[in-house]
Design goal:
This protein is α+β, with helices and mostly antiparallel strands. Helices cover 21% and strands 50% of the residues. Strands 1, 2, 3, 4, 5, 6, 7 and 8 form an eight-stranded mixed β-sheet that branches.
Amino acid sequence: MNRKRFFHLVCLLLGILSFSACSNDDEPLSGFTDVEREDLNVLNGAFSYKSGMDVTEIEFIPFPAPTEKKSTMNDVPMKFYGTIHYKSRYYDAEYYFYLDTEKRQIVAYLKHSEKEDYFNALVGKKWVYAIVDYNTITLYDTDLSNPVIHTNTYIRKQQ
């Protein structure tokens, strides 16, 4: 009888362990349009662009569903699709982002440095994006003047 109870206890513990080992990475994206979901599936991951002596890296980490974060201005909430880690020789920052698929833009606002669920409404970036293929995207930082010169091709980093 003790062996039977022990066997059931082991099975229960293994079941609990297998469920707790599941990650959110396996969850499908929900609450997005089909176009947003397709673009987020490609953008998910790290990309790099090499220019002379500088390497710019950008990593997109989508949320499983659109997620509200509060603005530093009057706590006004806004829905974001995930986070971006942007790093170059001179700049290292964390953003929340969403996609404007009609304009083909990635709109990002700096994550607040002290409040987890807040974004800095005054500091943001906007990129015009194009998906070339699963491993290649182009980004044009709209703060720069010339899309012909300042559109950069980013290649997916191999893990």
